[in-house]
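User: Predict the structure for this protein chain, please.
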Amino acid sequence: MTSWSHRYEFAESIQFAVLGFWVPALLAVGAPWQRWRLVRVDESGGISGGVLHERRRVNQGRALSFASLFIAISIFWRLAPIVNGLTDHEWIVVVEALTLTGAGVALMCDVVESPPLRPGVSRPYRIGLSAAVMWSAWVFAYLEAMSHAPWYRAFQHVAGRSLSMPADQQLSAASVWFMTGVVFVPIIYWNLVHWLQAEEDPDDELYKMVRQERSRGFFGYRSDDSI
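Assistant: Here is the predicted structure, written as structure tokens:
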């Protein structure tokens, strides 16, 4: 794949998608943290130590930060000067792999269950984050495919001897679309199905929340509590 990525844009895009989407997703789903001794679980089932820790209250801001960081890193590695540098200096691929995979694993652990780590945000929020990351890759790939001029000078297209520039760009976009879809569409569908199965009737849930707020009062005290 590395040798092909020096000749064809679509091969470089496949390499990018593998490092940025497939490897993080497989790591998160495979959950090797205990085998690698990055996380230790005590007898009660809680996380007692290790390099990675599960925070009980992972807020939406943290998940959004991971998603934004991953989108920024993925766009960075698709910029023309960076891709051209990848073909000239093979060692840069190692940096690409470390940054993409690291940011991707942090994101995936917030959208899928990776025992003993659990996402700290609700399923609708996981769906939104997954869709946003997937669409960011799709939009960038679409702009690349629709361009009438080559984005990357590193790939030489010789008529009659290799893929034409438009064909290479369109294959590149199709590869990114397909490989990101394979990762995120099941995640979105899985979270949606489990959310709908676990969701109570919306009206009943709303009434329940209103009753709870009324019983607590404005400052969190119950209406029958004395101050």
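Confidence is low (pLDDT under 50) at residues 49-58.
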